[in-house]
User: Fold Fluoride-specific ion channel FluC from Terrabacter ginsenosidimutans.
Amino acid sequence: MTMLLMALAGGVGAATRFVTDAAVARRSRFRVPLGTLVINVTGSFLLGLLTGLFALSSADSSGATLKAVIGTGFCGGFTTFSTASVESVRLWLAEGRATGFGYAATTLVLGVVAAATGIGVGQLLG
Assistant:
């Protein structure tokens, strides 16, 4: 049952990524792919929040299922390391090394900060 729920959550995550990326792209005036950046930073925060909420809790089966469904399923379907990598290389080739490297570095730094913030908030709420 957990696998089925994870697969469904992954599909919802992927659909949410598609809608979010399209919405951000419509509003963006920048040449860098802000949609993927927003998605990965938001997903990092959500996964950090989930980790922080469950870090101090007991490992009962319902908590483990929820972590797997949201963390692996939804967040796995929502975030996209491969697209961020391809977009970094595309920017490197089209806009120059500084732009490509800057996009990759920004994605990495903001993702780590968002995850750490999510863990902190999760621990405060949990």
User: Anything to note?
Assistant: DSSP finds five helices and no strands in the chain. The chain has one domain: 2-125.
